[in-house]
Amino acid sequence: MLERTLFEKRHIPQTIEKLERQSQDPTIWNDQKAANTLFTELRTLKNQWGPVQTLLTSVEDLLLLAEDAKEADANDLHKELHVIEKQWETLQNQLYLNGEFDHRNAFLTISSGAGGTEAQDWASMLLRMYLRYAEAMQWKTTLIEKTDGQEAGIKTATILIEGDPAYGYLKCERGTHRLVRLSPFNAKNLRQTSFALAEVIPEITETKEIDIPAEQLRIDTFRSGGAGGQHVNKTESAVRITHLPTNTVVSCQSERSQQQNKQHAMNMLRAKLLEKKREEEQQQKSALRGASQSADFGQQIRSYVLHPYQMVKDVRTGVETSSTQGVLDGDIQIFIEAALKNIQRKEPS
Known about the structure:
Layout: H1 5-10, H2 12-23, H3 32-68, H4 74-96, E1 106-112, H5 117-136, E2 140-148, E3 154-162, H6 166-170, E4 175-182, E5 191-202, E6 217-222, E7 238-243, E8 248-252, H7 258-282, E9 300-305, E10 311-314, E11 320-321, H8 324-328, H9 333-346
Parallel strand pairs: 4-9
Antiparallel strand pairs: 1-3, 1-5, 2-3, 4-5, 6-7, 7-8, 9-10, 10-11
């Protein structure tokens, strides 16, 4: 049956009641910024709680019907319960997405770990997996930049994923992904372990989120290179932006227009600098991506074993499946939903 722990933990009804009382205080407008924040939070909570109330009412109605139902009606009631449970699962996922940037677009960067061609090929497989996932979610993807491997695969690639809740879901994928398979790149076809790192940050488009004075930036233009395919331009319109105080570098080569590439790069830079700012303020893991990670065994979040058996297992949640090809084709929602629930369980009451 439906759980109430999520709502009890959040104290949503009590919080709504408290915020409504505060909103009726005429002195609240003495601080307009605080007032706007309060009303935004109140509106968000009401939007979350409304569907919950509707669903709980449906459950109560179903229980009343069950008390008076005849045995012949049991099958219909069971079907109705199944529908409600599916609605509950969807609602749970929506309620887990309560972070400040969860409903933003996301920049996803895939980097190959140590291991040369093997790791670079794995990085390209991982990139394909996320492109297929985004396609299944009906999200738009744009290749921002890509550096190809010398023989196969990619050294690194960044894509912009536009959709709701792209960041909220994909933040669960940040970390190192480990592949075990028979190598297609050596004559003896030996078993090989490879690593690739997935990094995810939200797209920050509003300048109010973080102030970046123009004098702190160095902007370079260049001609994009490598086997980028039809989506990477070959003209002098690629843009690289360096934030001088922090030496943070971002680049974009996906658009034909230099101005569009600059805009994408600035959005990435805002997100990276906001992340750095939050790390400094909190002196703990970043609220956006966590501590800096390297693509090695110690930081892995998921293993993909193709030999000697078939298994994909999430290290954080224990969720696993033998449908390795399905996962590599983008069927990763079971891992994302489990990770969201895992994050929720770790939040303090």
